[in-house]
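Lecture 7, part 2: worked example. A protein chain together with inosinic acid.
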Amino acid sequence: MTDINPPGEIILSSETLQKRIAELGAQITADYADDPPLLVCVLKGAVMFLADLARAIDLPLEMDFMAVSSYGNSTKTSGVVRIVKDLDIDLAGRHVLIVEDIVDSGLTLSFLRKNLSSRNPASMKVVALLVREGRQKADEELAYIGFEIPPDFVVGYGLDVAEVYRNLPAIHSYTP
Ligand code: IMP
Ligand code: MG
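Predicted complex, written out as structure tokens:
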């Protein structure tokens, strides 16, 4: 805890997040009306987003959780992605909607896409709460995007620095 700085200014307030999530939920409800999705939450960062988004979708959806690790306890990517916790539900024939907190380099997502598509889902799309402007190395196609944000590191609403600040209700900037 000792070399963790206090969070910076609010970039996205709780109200702004909730308003956008309601819009995404309505859009997903319309798009998946005939084929309710299986939400795949990428732990731990997407947990707050999954909880709010799922309640904004008016369909008999299912949810499952997966944990991958691409960052150590720092604010720089290691480029290495590994599965820390796998899904319980079989994806075969399912309409999978991957719920991500933030797409930065896109390495995590391209790994997930390859890994999950080998399990024969009927369809697979991605909803990302945040996308870093101009920072996607892999050219990832995202069906639903909450917000595009500038290059600065952010914390709160699930996003951490060395495992802290996930519980902040808003998204804040963070200076390492
Ligand atoms: P990518 O593989 O570079 O796209 O990194 C994506 C993952 O890195 C996200 O799912 C987050 O867990 C983490 N990450 C990227 N940027 C930030 C940030 O600004 N704050 C906290 N975590 C981040
Ligand atoms: Mg994540």
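The domain at 15-160 is CATH 3.40.50.2020 (Rossmann fold). Residues 95 and 123 are 5 Å apart (CA to CA). Keep this in mind for problem set question 3.
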